[in-house]
């Protein structure tokens, strides 16, 4: 049996991630807040790991609160997220993105 409440929240997460512009990143907590539950950063990570449309839903644009890339990025291995971000002009240094430069401010 499908958990429609969870699926609905995942749909909100995917919609929020699609708002992140090319060349910018957002944090898991930021995406959770945009999806309506600011305390659900871990759920965002779980949803992105299950991304039903890689290449359409840009989950590579989501990083942790310190700008750290996902250590086990679901689509392309450990370096996949870095490659995708760098292709968009986001500089990655030592597995981190400088949030002062690249974080999307969705106000």
Q: What's the short story on this structure?
A:
By secondary structure, the protein is mainly alpha-helical. 41% of the residues lie in helices and 7% in strands.
The number of E-state strands comes to: 4
- The H/E string reads HEHHEHEEH
- Percent in strands: 5-15%
Q: Segments where pLDDT lies below 50 for 5+ residues?
A: 1-5
Report the structural category: mainly alpha
How confident is the prediction overall: mean pLDDT?
90
CA(first)-CA(last) distance: 38 Å
Counting DSSP H or I runs of 4 or more residues, the number of helices is 5
Helicity range of the residues? 40-55%
CA radius of gyration is 13 Å
Cα shape: globular
List keywords for this structure.
107 residues; mainly alpha; two-stranded parallel sheet; two-stranded antiparallel ribbon; 5 helices; globular
Would you mind describing this structure in some detail?
- With 107 residues, the protein is mostly helical.
- 41% of the residues lie in helices and 7% in strands.
- It has 5 helices and 4 strands.
- It has helices at 4-19, 28-34, 41-49, 80-87, 99-102, and strands spanning 26-27, 62-63, 92-93, 96-97.
- Strands 1-2 form a two-stranded parallel ribbon. The protein has a two-stranded antiparallel ribbon with strand order 3-4.
- Strand 3 and strand 4 (96-97) form a beta hairpin.
- Helix 2 (28-34) crosses helix 3 (41-49).
- It is globular and about 35 Å long.
- The N and C termini lie far apart (38 Å).
